[in-house]
Amino acid sequence: MEHAPLDLPEDPRLAGNIAHFAAALRRAGVPAGPDRLILATRAVQAAGFTDRTDFYHTLHAVFVRRPEHRATFAQLFRLYWRDPRYLEHMMAMLTPTVRGVQQDRTPKPAEKRAAEALLNQPAHLPEPQADPPETLDLDAAATASTRERLRTLDFEQMSTAEMAEAKRMLATLRLPVKPLTSRRSQNAPQGRIDRRATLRAALRRGDLTRLKRTKPTTRWPNLVALCDISGSMSSYSRALLHFLHAVANREGQGWAEVHGFTFGTRLTNITRHLRTRDVDAALAAAGAETQDWEGGTRIGDTLHVFNRDWSRRVLGQGAVVLLVTDGLDRGDADRLAFEARRLHLSARRVIWLNPLLRFDGFAPKAAGIRALLPHVDSLRAGHSIAALEGLAEALSRPDDVGDLTRLRR
After folding, report:
1. Cβ atoms of 249 and 277 closer than 8 Å
2. Which of the listed ranges 123-137, 186-200, 220-234 does the model predict with the highest average pLDDT?
């Protein structure tokens, strides 16, 4: 099978195009340092670039060193080298869409990030440009002001570009937790006297000159997130899932395990998808498995399924539960209260994130909200980046209740 030759520039410009391609890879999250760039240039010179398949695999062998980088590399290669109208594709993917209007094509995992990486700086096309590139003066103060505004902006009110920037900010947030004191103990030079170990050692030596001491060990709790993905909660749940993905894949957070569940009319476990390194691929797989996105809400029924099938598996070791919902349930309020009480008794703490708290005059008038209030330890808003930053305070202070006291009154 013959392949069409690539429409590439002459040899002097080939190295420059590979350099710009490597820079786009770095902006998209793929490590492509100077050593990789030099190696890629030499590899292409040795293998040639008359066959597009050989050219793709030559660069792939040099730049891709982790499985999660394959999708990003494939999309960047297609947009930069193979598609003659790649700029139109990128602009179409990054243009905000009107709510309720379906897109012609759903972007593949890593495709939007690849487009943003290429549009982040002026693109270097293989064809020569007649007009010189424009020079842009960036105001750092305005950039800082924009990021500060995004911290308090409601996720529901964000445009596509603002949501993309918010997701990058969410990926940098930290949610550290303090270790828990375990009932188990370990040998230590100082601490409580271990009488049993001391007597056993005395029997072996025949004297009581040395005392054995122990101290309590520490362990890390689990983090379990239950995210409402009904129609009124979809924007907030998407943002929180980006945040959970960053927490699950960042070392040093302190959590033993991070478990994620989505619920609307049914419960779906998406924990294994959150462990995928590439955030676009992880959320795309989670969305494909979730069949009730932007549907109805049956909180009581889904909590019953969680308590029956998953509670004993994931709520051990002093787990903390994040319940992300507005509490607007059409089911039986008594059933919801019963299942919420079971959840509260099984977890160390239950923190409720309710986006409706963004309204100053919010009051617990809905039956579902009144059923949940007695069975949570803390109630906080979850409608913005600043609200999610407040989670660290709720976790660091065991007595933090947020707006719970006010609403109970």
Report:
1. yes
2. 220-234
CA distance 220 to 56: 44
Q: Give the other-Cβ count within 10 Å of 107's Cβ.
A: 18
CA angle 390, 392, 398 (to 5 degrees): 105
The stretches of 51-131 forming alpha helices (DSSP H) are 52-63, 70-77, 86-94, 111-119
Token output for 150 = 């995004």
Mean pLDDT computed over every residue of the chain: 77
Residue 12: other Cβ atoms inside 10 A: 7
What does the pLDDT average to over 245-250? 84
Instruction: Report the distance separating Cα 248 and Cα 259, nearest Å.
Output: 8
Per-range mean pLDDT, top range of 5-19, 231-245, 390-404: 231-245
d(CA 198, CA 193): 8
CA distance 309 to 304: 9
DSSP reduced 3-state for 295: coil
Measured CA to CA, the distance from residue 177 to residue 104 in angstroms comes to: 43
pTM to 2 decimal places: 0.63
Provide the token pair at 46: 């040795």
Pairing, β 258-263 against β 267-269: antiparallel
Q: Given this model, what pLDDT does residue 125 score? A: 35
Residue found by looking up tokens 């009730």 in the block:
292
φ, ψ of residue 320 in degrees (nearest 5): -105, 130
Q: Which of 65, 6, 7, 61 has the alpha carbon at shortest distance from 31?
A: 65
Pick the closest to residue 308 from 350, 338, 329 (CA basis): 338
Contact (CB, 8 A) for 89 and 79: yes
Give the span between the Cα atoms of 78 and 113, in whole angstroms. Answer: 13
**What does residue 249 show for φ and ψ, rounded to 5 degrees?**
-110, 5
DSSP type of residue 376: -
DSSP 73-87: HHHHHIIIII-TTHH
| Pairwise CA distance, residues 194 & 169, whole Å | 49
Asked if residue 242 lies in contact with residue 163, where contact means CB atoms within 8 angstroms, the answer is: no
Contact partners, residue 150, CB within 8 Å, separation at least 6? 158, 162, 165, 166, 169, 385
Q: Are 67 and 33 in contact (CB under 8 A)?
A: no
Q: Return the HEC string of 372-406.
A: HHHHCCEEECCCCHHHHHHHHHHHHCCCCCECHHH
What are the two backbone dihedrals, phi and then psi, of residue 216, each rounded to the nearest 5 degrees? -65, 145
Query: What's the CA gap between 115 and 133, in Å, rounded?
Result: 19
Give the phi and the psi of residue 338 in degrees, each rounded to 5: -65, -45
